[in-house]
């Protein structure tokens, strides 16, 4: 998680200058933890961060809870609601990652629809929220990312069906120093 979050922060820093208004959406799993680490690093680099954690900190697994504690220790705050502020310069989508396999619930769908209505650039972590990482199927109306940053390896679904119909944007891979075996390679 620290490596993925730091990689996401570097990705943002290569495209946006310090001071840019960044909204990090942190979901209830490890994808949310990646977004929280990225938010902390960007905050330390001088970006104007806002973090929305719709499920609240109590829903986070242990590693993501540590990322949340790091965000708070760095002087950050979270909100459970997306306020009616103007569109940010960038949205980091850390709502759902590779584990989503059911349709977005009504509250999550409303949040995704609101972000999509802004037409602000979105960096999706692992997989745009609302896309099944295995099948590429849309599980509702997915977030429309300009970039999708995968960690270690790309989810199979990013190359299939609905995922390629405007939700993924440019697909980028950050290996985090891990080398995966080639598929079909003999022992």
TrEMBL record:
<dbReference type="InterPro" id="IPR004443">
    <property type="entry name" value="YjeF_N_dom"/>
</dbReference>
<dbReference type="Pfam" id="PF03853">
    <property type="entry name" value="YjeF_N"/>
</dbReference>
<protein>
    <submittedName>
        <fullName>Bifunctional NAD(P)H-hydrate repair enzyme Nnr</fullName>
    </submittedName>
</protein>
<dbReference type="InterPro" id="IPR036652">
    <property type="entry name" value="YjeF_N_dom_sf"/>
</dbReference>
<feature type="domain" description="YjeF N-terminal">
    <location>
        <begin position="1"/>
        <end position="184"/>
    </location>
</feature>
């Amino acid at each position: 998680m620290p490596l993925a979050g730091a990689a996401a922060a570097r990705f943002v820093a290569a495209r946006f200058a310090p001071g840019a208004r960044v909204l990090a959406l942190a979901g209830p799993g490890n994808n949310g933890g990646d977004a929280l680490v990225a938010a902390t690093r960007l905050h330390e680099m001088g970006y104007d961060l806002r973090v929305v954690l719709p499920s609240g900190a109590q829903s986070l697994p242990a590693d993501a809870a540590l990322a949340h504690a790091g965000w708070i220790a760095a002087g950050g705050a979270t909100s459970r609601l997306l306020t009616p502020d103007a569109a940010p310069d960038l949205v980091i989508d850390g709502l759902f990652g590779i584990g989503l396999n059911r349709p977005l619930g009504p509250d999550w769908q409303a949040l995704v629809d609101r972000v999509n209505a802004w037409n602000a650039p979105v960096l999706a972590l692992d997989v745009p929220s609302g896309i099944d990482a295995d099948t590429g199927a849309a599980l509702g109306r997915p977030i429309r990312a300009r970039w999708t940053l995968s960690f270690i390896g790309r989810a199979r679904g990013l190359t299939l069906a609905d995922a390629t119909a405007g939700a993924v944007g440019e697909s980028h891979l950050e290996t985090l120093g891990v080398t995966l075996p080639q598929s079909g390679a003999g022992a």
